[in-house]
Amino acid sequence: MALGFGAHLNITITPSDVGKRVTTRRRVPEGFRDAVGELEFWRDGVLGVRKRDGTLVEIGEETLAAAKVVQEPRRPRA
Predict the structure, then answer these.
(1) How far is it, in rounded angstroms, from Cα 45 to Cα 12?
(2) Rounded CA separation 60/64 (Å)
(3) Phi, psi (5° rounding) for residue 77?
(4) pTM recorded for the entire structure
(5) What is the dihedral of CA 56, 62, 65, 69, to 10 degrees?
(6) What is the tens place of the pLDDT at every residue in 14-36?
(7) 53-78 as b/e, with b when 16 or more CB fall inside 10 Å?
(8) Do 39 and 22 meet the contact criterion of CB atoms below 8 Å apart?
């Protein structure tokens, strides 16, 4: 019996999610790249995601394979 595994990828973010924390997966020539951070803008077919390290990733919406809003990371307990 052969088992098949696969992922169902969805894009559930919209321009109304600007300001929220998102995770994205986009197609690149080498395969896929992920970016997690605040969705700063979505205009003219380009999304801007500001990562935790401060870098801004610009993503063409036509390259999106999956994206969703995610919760803020938990703060460590003192």
Answers:
(1) 16
(2) 7
(3) -75, 145
(4) 0.83
(5) 50
(6) 999 999 999 999 999 999 999 99
(7) eeeebebeeeebebbeeeeeeeeeee
(8) yes
